[in-house]
Specification:
The complex is a heterodimer. Helices cover 64% and strands 4% of the residues of chain A. Chain A has 33 helices and nine strands. The termini of chain B are far apart. Classes of the chains: A mainly alpha, B mainly alpha. The interface between A and B is small, with 9 and 12 residues.
């Protein structure tokens, strides 16, 4: 297999760049929309022109999508080897050999990301119109401002042609995530969830920066540690000083060493932040950079393994992997469209994107890949198990997202990068559909998120129900929707993986172990997703009646399910009968709608100006007196849900396995130029692949059957009995394995103790030192002052006084009488004469 | 018969000079002071003429004396003008009155 890899590497040349001038428009429109809403949005909202806010935001998204689609068609028309659009705006900075541009680049991978972001982003913007219109925070403009800014940052992340720009976007999405999680900032708990997300991500970003700097340093050559053996093949030109000053790009280019790689093409080598330059010098074997990197060690550890693992730490934070996943479930505190866009479809996949983007680096280090795949598998099974017993519908989806991100990391970890990216794509569709479906349910149930108070909603919300069901089928892995194709490819390739290692030791057992973890997680995924479906949509509606029966047996409900995510801040977890009815109704009475006709005492149907159809459909007249019946959401919401559900089915054509069609999947073919890394997989017979596909479907079916048996009508007592039987284990899982508490013990409390210690030291030791320094200084200043006053000033005054006194005494001599002077002259003349005589 | 020689003239010149100096130093009247200056100049003139006659010969000493006389006349004119100015300013020709340059 190594020969094959080398052959492939020989065949690769530098990327051919196709310069275009419009790529900047894609991130520009959301930025402009964000800016307009920031400056004008609140005026509009106050002056009753609230519509303008979403017109601007959605318009910006659609324009951006249009440009992205245009770019896609332009790229598709190009030769596969030339699919690299570049739009360099200006030189951001130049220092030594390093030159960083403010430039955008699109290759097939980032093109896919940009299409996902703009397409799903546009849909979610449209969804948000209906969802946020009556929002109690009364900051419609702020919501859309952050949402547009998020899309801008995310586009910067995927389109930046260098690490600097990517990192800028990386931090930008973190900021927007913070701003949107803490959207209801007056609620202390939700504000804290925002801070948690931000702080946990800082840990990850720290790792990312370290990995980046290690890679940069490793490429430097001249700065490599003395005494490491293997850098015979790559030495920078002796005349080139690595830190030679360069004032502009041309000078930087002049001091950068290059290697001729055939056909007269020159490839820049040495430290760079540019993805294309990095890719060219690492992928093209003739430069010797790959060998050089492979042989470098830092304190005895392979440099590439460190680079890969530290960068993956960044991905852990952003993509919510063990152990840095804890912020994602809390991030459900944000409004549901935010959860769908940021915490399911786009931002959390940034880590997967980053690993896929750096596939050629990761492929050089089987240890790093082993870790990525292992952590992904652990996260997948761990988060899936937490999802089993959650009651908050958004919490279920949050843990499901963590679990699915684990699957993606299995994909990019075992080396089937295209499948990782494909799962990213399929997940973006079905998870956005699930989240938005849950948003529709939450809206329909008057801001109720507890699935125990739902049930039977299929009669009230048919569209939401069908779309949710399709998305469930997709995530559970049935071949009629897209989830099967990506998950199956990932697990199959994990099983046949031959590339993985841990600590530099090849581990052939790791692939099958990951497969096992993955298939269990897939079964669990199917179970909890259908559990959520059955609890929500089948059986009898439980919202109107008292719902204390479930609470009675759950001693931890108020602790473990604090309902961070309730968009209206009603803490309905507390078992108070009749509490919901009055409370919710009152709250919505206050938030009355600008320019809406009153909807009777129901008072909550008017989620958008254009929801009359939905309202009419479901005959609320019959329930009018009740005021508490679930209802279908407005058409903006159902349209988005339908689009996503259809997309969840249609996108399966991107990844039809080669086993079925005989040709590589469309997406694999599309992404091929971006993913030059060659990773070896065992060749297995076809029957085995068919078998494993069957196993994947069987796993989904097992989950479905169990969920159906236990939750189909909400009357089964088996769940309760299982819970009682294994109460201790149930409690541990229900409380998410006490990971948050563990973090509290291990990280937060020691941090606080450390902070207190530092505060004490500051108050006592540092202040004492400062005061002492002050006193000592004052003492010496006094001495110095005395010297100045008595010695220096004294001498000056003495001189002045002597002069004054001398002048005063001499004054008498000058009388102004000429005759007096004449006497003096005579006396002088006489004295001279006398002296003359005396001397002779 | 006493033979009048150079020493007699020198003694006469010295006497004239001393008398002039004494006048200049002691008189308070500005005009008197000017007269003393004339005496000093004439004492010097006697010396010029005497040395010319007894020592060097020729006429240069004599001419010098004539110059001094002319100079003395000019000096007297200027001096008297100053005295008049002093009188205008101080209403007195007492030399002690004009002591404003003391301060």
């Amino acid at each position: 297999m190594h020969e094959a890899m080398h052959e492939a590497a020989h065949a690769l040349g530098p990327l051919a760049v196709h310069h275009v001038g419009y790529l900047w428009l894609i991130p520009f429109f959301p930025l402009a929309g964000s800016f307009i809403n920031l400056t004008l949005g609140w005026r509009w909202e106050r002056s009753g022109m609230k519509r303008n806010v979403h017109v601007v935001a959605v318009g910006a998204m659609l324009l951006s999508l249009a440009v992205a689609v245009y770019a896609f068609f332009q790229m598709r028309a190009l030769d596969p080897e030339h699919r690299f659009l570049q739009d360099t705006l200006w030189n951001a900075f130049t220092s030594g050999r390093l030159s960083v541009d403010f430039g955008f680049a699109l290759d097939p991978l980032s093109m896919m990301m940009v299409l996902i972001i703009t397409f799903i982003g546009s849909l979610i913007h449209v969804f948000s119109i209906g969802y946020m219109w009556d929002d109690e925070a009364k900051a419609y403009w702020r919501f859309f401002m952050w949402l547009n800014l998020f899309v801008f940052s995310m586009l910067l992340l995927v389109m930046g042609d260098n690490f600097a720009l990517m990192f800028f976007g990386w931090e930008g999405v973190g900021l927007c995530s913070y701003g949107l999680i803490a959207y209801y900032y007056t609620d202390r708990e939700k504000a804290a969830a925002g801070m948690k997300a931000f702080v946990v991500n800082r840990f990850g970003d720290f790792g990312f920066v370290i990995g980046l700097l290690l890679l940069f340093w490793g490429l430097g050559g001249a700065w490599a540690l003395p005494g490491d053996g293997g850098r015979a093949r790559y030495e920078p030109t002796p005349g080139v000083n690595a830190t030679a000053p360069a004032a502009n790009m041309d000078e930087a280019l002049a001091v950068t060493p290059t290697v001729e790689v055939g056909h007269g093409q020159l490839v820049k080598i040495g430290p760079t932040l540019n993805f294309r330059e990095l890719r060219d010098q690492v992928v093209i074997e003739k430069t010797g950079i790959a060998e050089h990197l492979k042989n470098q060690k830092v304190w005895g550890v392979a440099l590439l393994a460190l680079v890969g693992i530290f960068m993956f730490v960044g991905a852990m934070g952003k993509s919510a992997q063990l152990p840095l996943y804890v912020w994602l479930p809390d991030a459900m505190a944000g409004p549901t469209p935010v959860s769908a866009l940021i915490h399911a479809a786009t931002m959390v996949t940034a880590g997967v994107y980053m690993v896929a983007r750096l596939n050629f680096i990761y492929a050089l280090s089987p240890s790093a890949m082993g870790w990525v795949a292992l952590i992904g598998a652990l996260t997948a099974i761990f988060a899936a198990s937490i999802g089993f017993f959650q009651y908050d519908i958004k919490k279920v989806l949050a843990y499901s997202t963590v679990s699915q991100l684990g699957f993606m990391f299995i994909g990019v970890g075992v080396g089937v990068y295209w499948a990782g990216a494909y799962h990213l794509l399929t997940h973006a569709f079905f998870k956005a559909c699930l989240f938005l479906g849950s948003g529709s349910v939450i809206l329909g149930c008057h801001h109720e998120q507890d699935m125990r108070k739902m049930g039977g909603l299929k009669e009230y919300m048919p569209i939401t129900r069908w779309t949710y069901l399709i998305a469930c089928v997709a995530i559970a892995g049935f071949p009629i929707a897209n989830g099967f194709y990506s998950k199956d490819e990932i697990l199959w390739k994990a099983f046949t993986s031959q590339h993985l290692a841990l600590f530099g030791v090849p581990t052939p057992w790791l692939g099958p172990a990951i497969y096992l973890a993955g298939i269990i997680a897939a079964t669990g995924t199917s179970f909890y997703m259908f559990r959520s479906y059955f609890m929500t949509f089948t059986g009898k509606y439980r919202g109107g009646e008292g719902h204390q029966h479930e609470h009675g047996e759950d001693p931890h409900a108020s602790v473990a399910a604090p309902h961070h995510a309730d968009p209206h801040g009603h803490h309905d977890a507390h078992p108070e009968p009749n509490h919901v009815t009055g409370h919710v109704h009152e709250a919505h009475g206050k938030v009355l709608h600008l320019g809406h006709d009153a909807h009777g005492d129901h008072g909550h149907d008017a989620h958008a100006a254009n929801d009359n159809a939905a309202h009419g459909d479901h005959g609320h007249g019959a329930h009018g007196g009740h005021g508490h019946t679930p209802h279908e959401s407005p058409w903006t919401i159902t349209l988005v849900l339908s689009t996503l559900a259809v997309g969840s089915i249609l996108t399966c054509f991107l990844g039809l396995p080669a086993l079925w069609t005989g040709a590589p999947p469309a997406l694999e073919h599309w992404l091929e130029p971006t993913l030059p890394a060659e990773v070896s997989f065992a060749h297995a017979p076809h029957w085995m692949e068919w078998l494993f596909q069957g196993l994947g479907v069987a796993a989904g079916a097992v989950g479905l059957v169990f969920a159906w048996a236990l939750y189909k009508d909400g009357r089964s007592t088996v769940p309760a009995r299982i819970k009682e039987r294994f109460l201790s284990a149930w409690t541990v899982v229900y409380n998410k394995y006490y990971v948050d508490e563990l973090y509290d013990r291990i990280v937060i409390q020691p941090s606080l103790a450390w902070g207190r210690l530092m505060s004490w030291l500051d108050g006592h030791l540092i202040d004492w030192l400062v005061n002492f320094a002050g006193t000592a200084t004052r003492f010496f200043a006094n001495i110095d002052g005395a010297i100045d006053k008595y010695v220096v000033d004294g001498a000056v005054n003495l001189l002045a006084n002597a002069t004054i006194e001398g002048g005063r005494s001499m004054r008498r001599i000058q009388t102004g009488r000429i005759q007096t002077y004449l006497y003096g002259a005579l006396a002088g003349g006489l004295a001279v004469i006398l002296l003359n005589f005396l001397i002779h | 018969m006493v033979h009048v020689g150079l020493p007699h003239f020198l003694v006469l010149g010295a006497l004239l000079f001393s008398a002039g100096l004494l006048t200049v130093a002691t008189r308070r009247n500005a005009v008197g002071v000017l007269m003393g200056v004339e005496l000093i100049l004439n004492g010097a003139n006697v010396n010029f003429v005497a040395f010319n006659h007894y020592v060097t010969g020729g006429v240069s000493g004599q001419v010098f004396a004539l110059f001094v006389i002319v100079l003395a006349a000019a000096e007297a004119a200027v001096g008297l003008a100053i005295v008049l100015a002093i009188f205008h300013t101080f209403r007195s020709i007492d030399v002690r009155a004009a002591d404003t340059m003391r301060e």
